[in-house]
Amino acid sequence: MKYKVLVVDDxxxxxxxxxxxLEKENEFEVTTAYNGKEALDAVQNEKPDxxxxxxxxxxxxxxxxxxxxxxxxxxxxIPVIFLTAKENEIDEIVGLEIGADDYIQKPISPRKVIAxxxxxxxxxxxxxxxxxxxxxxxxxxxxxxDSISHTVRINRKDVFFPKKEFQLLHFLLANRGRxxxxxxxxxxxxxxxxxxxxxxxDVHVAKxxxxxxxxxxxIETIKGLGYRFKDA
Length: 232
Description:
By secondary structure, the protein is an alpha/beta fold.
């Protein structure tokens, strides 16, 4: 899965630089716009996952574009990162107060922009998952996971899952069809302040698969991205 990025800046050189470096990552599909009005049209047509938005632009400036996006429920959750040559702290504060997720000053470093983008995307994904109402009892075919009694039943037989394996299965099953990186799974299951390595996720996924029997193949490894529980 590639993330859709909308790059908005009236300086063509900057747009071209960002587009080239983002597409080189092979994780992003890039749409471009050169003023605020084009940006709003592109949002409606492309539904980007994240927006890199210059502030000082013709037609509509970046602040006004961000305000309009955040006041529209259908677009309000799209993360926005401001790109600006301004060095005024007030502008940064204003940008964040109207709903921007980050603020990067020019001259830009493509690597730094990409790193900040990935961080914002990770936070947005975790936030979306956390705001989703999680079912206490999840049933999938003859697999049943009950978070109240902490039980897993497969074909009506109880199968014991230790705490972390249970949480991992419950999380993937509750969000089946979605791909989660190892980092997101670590944050969700182990917490952000606990030091564990990515390999921890792989080991626990292997143990969960082993216990799932005929349902083992429903947990897919998505190369370069992470894991997901198939929805069918």
